[in-house]
């Protein structure tokens, strides 16, 4: 892949105004697929969650998933959209090697939700309103696994395998209007917008929203126009970006790439592009099609979706607290500083810490464990922190520290045991014998032995040099294999010195 010429980000913004747009695809966590009774599950053996409808077999007919419709209406309401009194499905004709009927059932000119907006909060508290054009229902395609080659992509592969498990999974695609005025904060706003959508769908309980699994994917549209020009520039669409960090980097990269081409007198090709996490670059995909190219026409096998006003109001009344409002409330209730709370949000740990507090942990302790040791282990193992341990186990660990059963050093060992599947915190303590020694008898014996080895320490302490106790405390902690409360050992040493 040839290396693109890039203009510096600062110069790009001096010459051109970026205009953004996003299409975020949200997989719904219904039990079955959008148009069939096949299971909707992740990680199962390939081609096991299928049905005649998934495979496009002759005579098979789609049936709309009622729960997916309810979820879609809830999402539309949460996005501030109007809900269409009647919406219908259409066939989007395109060559899909992983969607056997060779067209996608989607919504085109009559989406279920339209005309909304999302308030996006940036790290410094700035609120940016992102206009929503529509949110429409559709089905996902299957998954291709490319065999051979060094990148796992189709380029250089010897052959491809198709897995239809994902074919037909319910999707809602959220499409923004063009977003103006982002200027130098365009990459930051892109990341914050996708994060806000993820927070909304998680709060609604309609999607697992795990980007690494493809539950939530972003297509980022970027165009540049010369300063002072009204006409929009030609856009590119970077497809299926699957992490918040990648969304931010991809937008920044495309701004720099397009600016370099335009400055040199070139023109931008309207095309899809692929983001490469390993190189931090995009590469050309295919020329971008317009709606006419897909030959949309009404799906003849499905009736229009006509939700009753009563259903819409029922779902509106059930909407949870808006994520931005919830964040402000929790920050106040927990007493976190701006920096402490931003660490939680940036780490994607707000829900885990909330659940840990609800399980009985103090907010400060919950934040300490999730943003500290758990995140460190996650980075070391290159996995999501949220996949390592449950909030209930973290709360139990914090309670054991609070009760004096563990100190921080022992608690870290217990945490590792829990993460490695050795059981609950208490089961790990029992199996490994990691509890603190609570009986003063063994501590006093260890102190006496340490003092005998360092006979001058007592005299120094009695002369007011209390820091001399540190040598004895260290020796006792070593003798007790770290299973002593250092504060209690210090108390006992000072008691001996006062005798």
Automatic annotation (TrEMBL):
<comment type="subunit">
    <text>Heterotrimer of A, B and C subunits.</text>
</comment>
<feature type="domain" description="Asn/Gln amidotransferase">
    <location>
        <begin position="351"/>
        <end position="497"/>
    </location>
</feature>
<dbReference type="InterPro" id="IPR017959">
    <property type="entry name" value="Asn/Gln-tRNA_amidoTrfase_suB/E"/>
</dbReference>
<comment type="function">
    <text>Allows the formation of correctly charged Asn-tRNA(Asn) or Gln-tRNA(Gln) through the transamidation of misacylated Asp-tRNA(Asn) or Glu-tRNA(Gln) in organisms which lack either or both of asparaginyl-tRNA or glutaminyl-tRNA synthetases. The reaction takes place in the presence of glutamine and ATP through an activated phospho-Asp-tRNA(Asn) or phospho-Glu-tRNA(Gln).</text>
</comment>
<keyword id="KW-0808">Transferase</keyword>
<dbReference type="Pfam" id="PF02934">
    <property type="entry name" value="GatB_N"/>
</dbReference>
<dbReference type="InterPro" id="IPR017958">
    <property type="entry name" value="Gln-tRNA_amidoTrfase_suB_CS"/>
</dbReference>
<comment type="similarity">
    <text>Belongs to the GatB/GatE family. GatB subfamily.</text>
</comment>
<dbReference type="GO" id="GO:0050566">
    <property type="term" value="F:asparaginyl-tRNA synthase (glutamine-hydrolyzing) activity"/>
</dbReference>
<dbReference type="GO" id="GO:0006412">
    <property type="term" value="P:translation"/>
</dbReference>
<keyword id="KW-0067">ATP-binding</keyword>
<dbReference type="Pfam" id="PF02637">
    <property type="entry name" value="GatB_Yqey"/>
</dbReference>
<dbReference type="InterPro" id="IPR023168">
    <property type="entry name" value="GatB_Yqey_C_2"/>
</dbReference>
<dbReference type="GO" id="GO:0016740">
    <property type="term" value="F:transferase activity"/>
</dbReference>
<dbReference type="GO" id="GO:0005524">
    <property type="term" value="F:ATP binding"/>
</dbReference>
<dbReference type="GO" id="GO:0050567">
    <property type="term" value="F:glutaminyl-tRNA synthase (glutamine-hydrolyzing) activity"/>
</dbReference>
<dbReference type="InterPro" id="IPR003789">
    <property type="entry name" value="Asn/Gln_tRNA_amidoTrase-B-like"/>
</dbReference>
<protein>
    <recommendedName>
        <fullName>Aspartyl/glutamyl-tRNA(Asn/Gln) amidotransferase subunit B</fullName>
        <ecNumber>6.3.5.-</ecNumber>
    </recommendedName>
</protein>
<dbReference type="InterPro" id="IPR006075">
    <property type="entry name" value="Asn/Gln-tRNA_Trfase_suB/E_cat"/>
</dbReference>
<dbReference type="InterPro" id="IPR004413">
    <property type="entry name" value="GatB"/>
</dbReference>
<dbReference type="InterPro" id="IPR018027">
    <property type="entry name" value="Asn/Gln_amidotransferase"/>
</dbReference>
<dbReference type="InterPro" id="IPR014746">
    <property type="entry name" value="Gln_synth/guanido_kin_cat_dom"/>
</dbReference>
<keyword id="KW-0648">Protein biosynthesis</keyword>
<keyword id="KW-0436">Ligase</keyword>
<dbReference type="GO" id="GO:0070681">
    <property type="term" value="P:glutaminyl-tRNAGln biosynthesis via transamidation"/>
</dbReference>
<keyword id="KW-0547">Nucleotide-binding</keyword>
């Amino acid at each position: 892949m040839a290396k693109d010429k890039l203009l510096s980000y600062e110069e790009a913004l001096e010459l051109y105004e970026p205009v953004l747009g996003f299409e975020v695809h949200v997989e719904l966590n219904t039990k079955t697929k959008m148009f069939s009774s096949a299971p909707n599950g992740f990680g199962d053996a390939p081609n096991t969650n299928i049905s005649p409808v998934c495979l496009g077999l002759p005579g098979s007919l789609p049936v709309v998933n009622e729960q997916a419709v309810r979820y879609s209406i809830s999402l539309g309401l949460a996005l501030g959209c109007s809900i269409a009194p009647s919406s219908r499905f259409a066939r989007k004709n395109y060559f899909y090697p992983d969607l056997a009927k060779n067209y996608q059932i989607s919504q085109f000119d009559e989406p279920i939700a339209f005309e909304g907006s999302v308030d996006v909060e940036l790290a410094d508290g700035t609120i940016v309103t992102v206009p929503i054009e529509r949110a429409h229902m559709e089905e996902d395609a299957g998954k291709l696994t490319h065999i051979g080659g060094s990148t796992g992509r189709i380029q250089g592969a010897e052959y491809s395998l198709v897995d239809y498990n994902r074919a037909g999974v319910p999707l809602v695609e959220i499409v923004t209007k063009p977003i103006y005025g982002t200027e130098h904060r365009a990459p930051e706003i892109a990341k914050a917008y996708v994060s806000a959508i993820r927070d909304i769908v998680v709060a609604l309980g309609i999607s697992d929203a795990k980007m690494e699994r493809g539950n939530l994917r972003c297509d980022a549209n970027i165009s540049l126009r010369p300063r002072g020009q009204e006409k929009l520039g030609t856009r590119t669409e970077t497809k299926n970006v699957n992490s918040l960090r990648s969304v931010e980097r991809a937008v920044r990269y495309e701004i720099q790439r397009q600016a370099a081409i335009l400055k040199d007198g070139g023109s931008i090709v309207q095309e899809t592009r692929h983001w490469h996490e390993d190189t931090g670059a995009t590469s050309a995909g295919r020329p971008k099609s317009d709606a006419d190219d897909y030959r949309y026409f009404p799906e003849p096998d499905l009736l229009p979706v006509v939700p009753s006003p009563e259903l819409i109001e029922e779902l509106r009344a059930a909407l949870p607290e808006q994520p931005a409002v919830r964040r402000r409330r929790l920050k106040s209730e927990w007493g976190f500083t701006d920096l402490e709370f931003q660490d939680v949000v940036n780490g994607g740990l707000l829900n885990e810490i909330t659940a840990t507090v609800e399980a009985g942990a103090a907010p400060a302790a919950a934040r300490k464990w999730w943003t500290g040791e758990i995140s460190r282990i996650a980075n070391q193992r290159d996995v999501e922190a949220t996949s390592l341990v449950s909030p209930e186990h973290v709360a139990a660990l914090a309670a054991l520290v609070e009760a004096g059963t563990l100190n921080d050093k022992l608690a870290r060992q217990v945490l590792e045991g829990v993460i490695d599947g050795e059981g609950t915190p208490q089961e790990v303590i029992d199996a490994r014998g990691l509890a603190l020694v609570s009986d003063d008898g063994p501590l006093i014996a260890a102190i006496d032995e340490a003092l005998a080895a360092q006979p001058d320490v007592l005299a120094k302490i009695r002369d007011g040099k209390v820091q001399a106790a540190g040598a004895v405390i260290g020796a006792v902690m070593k003798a007790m294999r770290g299973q002593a409360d250092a504060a209690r050992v210090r108390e006992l040493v000072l008691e001996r010195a006062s005798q």
